[in-house]
Structures are given as C-alpha cells and as structure tokens.
Amino acid sequence: MIQFGLDSQTILIGVLIFLARITDVSMGTMRTISIVQGRTKRAFFLGFVEISMWLIVISTVVNRIASHPILGIFYAFGFSTGNVVGIMLERKLAFGNIILRVISTQSGMMMADKVRAAGYAVTTFHGEGMNGPVMELYIVCRRRDFDDIIGRVRNIEPNAFYLTEQAGNVSKIYRPSMQRATGWRAILKMK
Fold first, then answer.
1. DSSP labels for 30-91?
2. Among residues 11, 44, 43, 16, which one has the least CA distance to residue 30?
3. How far apart are CA 72 and CA 18, in angstroms?
4. Is residue 19 very low, low, confident or very high in pLDDT (cuts 50, 70, 90)?
5. Given the DSSP bridges, would you call strands 161-167 and 132-142 parallel, antiparallel or unpaired?
6. What is the Cα–Cα distance from 94 to 144, expressed in whole angstroms?
7. Res 3: pLDDT
8. How much is the pTM?
9. In this predicted structure, what is the pLDDT of residue 93?
10. What is the spatial distance between Cα 58 and Cα 63, in angstroms, rounded to a whole number?
11. What DSSP element (H or E) covers 101?
12. Which among 169, 11, 2 has a CA at the least distance from the CA of 69?
C-alpha cells in the first residue's frame, strides 16, 4: 500500500537517508580526488566507509520506496547535496601540492624576496613577454598555502598573472616553520 502522507517515522527516516547520503557522497568525492592524487591509504579508508554507508542507505530505501516514494526524493537530494558538500570540504582541507607560477612585469624580485621571507622556496626565471621582459616565480607549495602566497604577491603587484598546476610527486616542500620552541622545549632542543 502506497502512503503519500508524511508521518513522523517516514520524515525521520527520510532525514536520516538525506544526511547519510550527504556523508557518503562527500566521502566519495574526496576519495576520487585522493585517487587522482595517488593517495592510496586515504582512498582505501574513504572507499570502505563510503560503500558501507551506501549499502545501509540503499537497503533502507529499496525496502521502503514502493510504499513511501518520498524516500526517493530524500535520497536524490542527499546525493546532490553530498556532491556540493564534498567539493567544499575538499577545498577547505586542500590536500595535495600545487605548482604556482607567477609572471611579473614589474616587481618580480621584490615578490620573490617577500615570499622567501615568509619561508617558501621560490625559483625565478627571466623571460620575454608580449610587452617586454618578465620574471617568472616558480613555487611548489601545499594547496593550503596558496592563499597566503598569492596574498603576498598581490600586495606587491595586484595585476600579476599567475597559474596553478596539480603537482604529482614532490621530493620536498619548503613551508614556513611553525612557532619556535619556548620554555622547556627550547632548553631541551639546545642539547
């Protein structure tokens, strides 16, 4: 018997399906990005949790969708929302490394010095652009450091051209050192 009414139990199950789909689809999005980046351990863990949740959700929906078609709508909205949440979450976590190339027509050395002073490694190249000499700053950094670096660049030359590329394997990333040791940690470190 099909029930079109929304009783409290159906609403509760629908909300749980919606939330579970957001979670498992978000994990699927992050798993896919981890696979592309070659992060096998993370991809394995996320895949295991994702498919476990999916099996629980799909078994609940399949068993009840004939009598409660509204559950299919909760399922679909959870899937769609999960895609968006997964992308936003991955952007926030910013896993991986990037290659940042900045092309400067005016203040390349000043930018390089400021970025280096912040603890990042910068390699510079002199080149020729459409309107004359340019300097390229070549920076390999963690994705989560991008905003900090590009902010420093734009403070010096707001119209500097830049582009990013996904970095595969990187032998070493230079990043700003964290806080210096203080108190007993500083004393013990001197030994």
1. HHHHHHHTT-HHHHHHHHHHHHHHHHHHHHHHHHHTTT-THHHHHHHHHHHHHHHHHHHHHH
2. 43
3. 10
4. very high
5. unpaired
6. 5
7. 54
8. 0.64
9. 80
10. 8
11. strand 97-104
12. 2
Pairing mode of beta strands 97-104, 123-129: unpaired
Partner residues linked to 142 by β-bridges: 97
Per-residue pLDDT tens for 92-132? 887 778 899 999 998 999 999 999 999 999 999 999 988 89
- The predicted structure's pLDDT at residue 2: 55
| CA dist., res. 102 & res. 125, Å (int) | 10
Phi, psi of 161 (to 5 degrees): -85, 135
Residue at token pair 């004939």:
66
Q: What is the C-alpha separation between 85 and 108, in angstroms, rounded?
A: 38
CATH no. for 97-167: 3.30.70.120
* Cβ atoms of 98 and 162 closer than 8 Å: no
Q: Which residues of 124-157 are buried (b: 16+ CB within 10 A; e: fewer)?
A: beeeeeeeeebbbbebbbbbbbbebbbeebeebb
What are the structure tokens assigned to 39, written together? 């992060």
What torsion, rounded to 10 degrees, do the Cα atoms 140, 143, 146, 147 define?
Answer: -170
Q: Which residue stretches of 137-190 are H helix?
A: 146-156, 183-190
Q: How many residues does the chain have?
A: 191
Contact indicator for 143, 98 with CB cutoff of 8 Å: yes
